[in-house]
Amino acid sequence: MTSEVASAAASGANATARFQNDKSPYEAVKDVPKERADKLARRVLEAVHATIREENVTYAEYNALKAWLIQVGLDGEWPLFLDVWVEHVVEEVATSDRQGNKGTIEGPYYVPNSPVISDEKGVGTVPMREGEGGTPLTWTGTVTAVDGTALSDAKVEIWHADDDGFYSQFAPNLPEWNLRGTNHVGPDGSFEIHTVQPAPYQIPTDGACGALIEAAGWHAWRPAHIHVKVSAPGYQLLTAQLYFPGDAHNDDDIASAVKPELLLAPQQQADGSATVAYSFVLDPE
Ligand code: MBD
Ligand code: FE
């Protein structure tokens, strides 16, 4: 019998394969106009050159960087590296004109087309194992437009780590869709999702991203979070994450993805479960 353990290289390879499914990299690059590719590539290179000059970067440091960049690819960790250290600024720029909900980064572990979990009233339970760890959580809310219209054809896709910090399809030995589901809201735009609270999450420390964290004396933690994508025809897709009050890493998330508007206020119940209300407001296209 083999016993698989979670490793950076395995979860990185899964995240890389998942992203490569989306579009051929050669096609994606061709979609960027030449003037734009020229300008952006030049500006990034100039920023690198300026750092080398101002910091007197040595050959030892240059060769360490070269070896490390090669290893990021070998470990499949480009999705992780980019989503942790770059995506938050792309998200900030892309959504700066929104009136509705704040969003935040998608991260490397979204999988489209998760199973539909809702009944006709928008009530559903995400797939989970018998005895799944973590505080049971009942989350209620509505999806409306910025003008107040209830969006009865909205859907809420949810995905999150388990109580050990592992995501299905990226860590071994988990059911394919564990803690991933798609909820179609009810006729009044409301939903009720049953799940469990995820644990705080450490990005993989045994690969190239972990080596950078170690070399720089950083930490690898993200606060506990629930990922969502909320969509409705004619409205801008909202990608967000929701956080829990009191988490030690809400103020120093390694991925810089926490915003005060994304903090939940769960109510602990006598039976050990928790309830929470959080609603979404979408911007028109
Ligand atoms: C995650 O779960 C995540 O949400 C991000 C942004 C990066 C790494 C792991
Ligand atoms: Fe995550």
TrEMBL record:
The reply on keyword Metal-binding is yes
Q: Where are the transmembrane segments?
A: none
* Species: Streptomyces carpinensis
So which domain of life are we looking at?
A: Bacteria
Q: Report the coiled-coil segments.
A: none
Q: Where is the composition biased (Low complexity)?
A: 1-17
Record-linked InterPro entries = 1_2-CTD_multi_dom, Catechol_dOase_N, Cchol_dOase_actb, Intradiol_dOase_C, Intradiol_dOase_core, Intradiol_RC_Dioxygenase
Q: What is this protein called?
A: Catechol 1,2-dioxygenase
Positions of region (Disordered): 1-30
- Which residues belong to any copy of the Catechol dioxygenase N-terminal domain? 35-101
Q: Which family does it belong to?
A: Belongs to the intradiol ring-cleavage dioxygenase family.
Pfam families, sorted? Dioxygenase_C, Dioxygenase_N
**Catalytic class of the enzyme:** oxidoreductase
| Gene3D superfamilies named among the record's database cross-references | Aromatic compound dioxygenase, Catechol 1,2-dioxygenase multimerisation domain-like
